[in-house]
Design brief:
16% strand, 13 strands, alpha/beta, seven-stranded parallel β-sheet, 13 helices, two-stranded antiparallel sheet, Rossmann fold, 396 residues
Length: 396
């Protein structure tokens, strides 16, 4: 079939197998161009099919020649209907790993469930013995709790009072004001249940019990802080409460890993275009202005550049890993530089529908959004008929 992007609001309903393949190949080539990292050997990536999780899997495999097990929850293709982009990303990753002679197996299922945890442990025991790095990069809006059977849904709302500020519809470029009503206490509990650290800790507990973590094993989860512009709806809102919980969980996990001299870290990463961030009011306008500013300074990064820098300049340097006063790794350091934030704040005040094309990088935002679904790559001929029915090799 010939596949074109079909939009519904902030979601693309289609994805392109060849475009997703090109996206993965581009990231692999970037990692290869940066040279070898003396990094992990056996890696479990929870949330391995898109964004920072995919970048972590690629960096582990093609930067350190690591064996990887990837866990994700993706929609496979049906006749005449495309799969989710993470499915095609994983197809491409497996093919490239096989060509390079690098071990890789994948699990498609609910990472919150005991079943998937047990399946991952079974593969580790059978194939790898022990693992030395666990990446936790889930971005699900819902979680079925494995113990209670309760379905929790996260929400993005401010706490205590309504929030009004500017946002942009990145499809049309229209800048407008938006008001978000405050959350309830139940909203906070549900959001923490989905996006906090409980499931990360449950994964580590299961791995410890199964004795599949090597000495000095490390685990890293990803978080975001962001600027004062977005904090009312993000860091001081419901999601911020979940991120606080995630970051506190790192200390609990580190205590549990004492027996292996292991450590848990939260890495605070840069704002990037993702399926999730595109649906968050205020964030697309902020990212558009941020991209423009960081590109002008020559310090813009996407997922793969961020994770390569995390591995090569933070996690695997044979030096003590630098953290902030709350024990977090700050790979958002370039985004949060004073000169960058001052410039973005100045542009924010001037941003309107008329001025944004000049002040921001909406074109770059749209391009990155389309790339998430495999569209917009110059190397791909989108007029060609492609097979949407692809299979992930080594899918367990």
């Amino acid at each position: 079939m010939i596949i074109e992007p079909r939009m519904r609001g902030f979601i693309c309903l289609t994805s392109h197998p060849k475009g997703c393949e090109q996206n993965v190949i581009n990231q692999i080539e970037y990692i290869k161009s940066k040279g070898k990292i003396n990094g992990p050997k056996n890696v479990l990536v929870i949330g391995a099919s898109t964004g920072f999780g995919l970048a972590s899997r690629i960096t582990s495999a093609f930067g350190s020649n690591a064996a990887t097990i990837g866990v994700f929850f993706e929609k496979p293709p049906q006749e005449g209907k495309t799969a989710s982009p993470g499915w095609y990303n994983s197809v491409a990753f497996q093919e490239q790993a096989k060509k390079a002679g690098i071990y890789a197996k994948s699990i498609n299922g609910d990472a919150f469930s005991d079943e998937v945890k047990n399946k991952a442990i079974e593969i580790i025991k059978t194939d790898l013995g022990k693992i030395d790095l666990v990446i936790y990069s889930l971005a699900s809006p819902v979680r079925m709790h494995p113990n209670t059977g309760v379905l929790h849904r996260s929400v993005l709302k401010p706490i205590g009072q309504s929030f009004t500020n500017k946002t942009v519809d990145f499809h049309t470029g229209v800048v407008s004001d938006i008001t978000i009503e405050p959350c309830t206490d139940e909203d906070i509990k549900n959001t923490v249940a989905v996006m906090g650290g409980e499931d990360w800790e449950m994964w580590i507990d299961a791995l410890i019990k199964a004795d599949v973590l090597s000495e000095k094993a490390m685990t890293v989860a990803y978080s975001y802080i962001g600027p004062s512009l977005t904090e009312a709806v993000y860091r001081k809102g419901t999601i911020g409460m979940a991120k606080d919980h995630l970051e506190a969980t790192a200390f609990k996990i580190t205590e549990k890993l004492n027996y292996t001299k292991g450590t848990a870290f939260v890495s605070v990463n840069k704002a990037l275009v993702t399926q999730a961030s595109s649906a968050i009011p205020v964030i697309p306008l902020y990212i558009s202005l941020l991209y423009k500013t960081m590109k002008e300074k020559g310090i813009h990064e996407g997922c793969i550049e961020q994770i390569q820098r995390l591995y090569s300049e933070r996690l695997y340097t044979n030096k003590e890993i630098p953290t902030d006063d709350k024990g977090r790794i700050r790979i958002d350091d370039w985004e949060m530089r004073a000169d960058i934030q001052e410039k973005v704040s100045e542009l924010w005040k001037k941003a309107t529908t008329e001025t944004l094309p000049e002040l921001g990088d909406l074109k770059g935002y749209k391009s990155d959004f389309l790339n998430l679904f495999g569209f917009g790559f110059e190397e791909v001929d989108y007029l060609l008929d492609v097979n949407e029915n692809t299979v992930i090799e080594e899918l367990v």
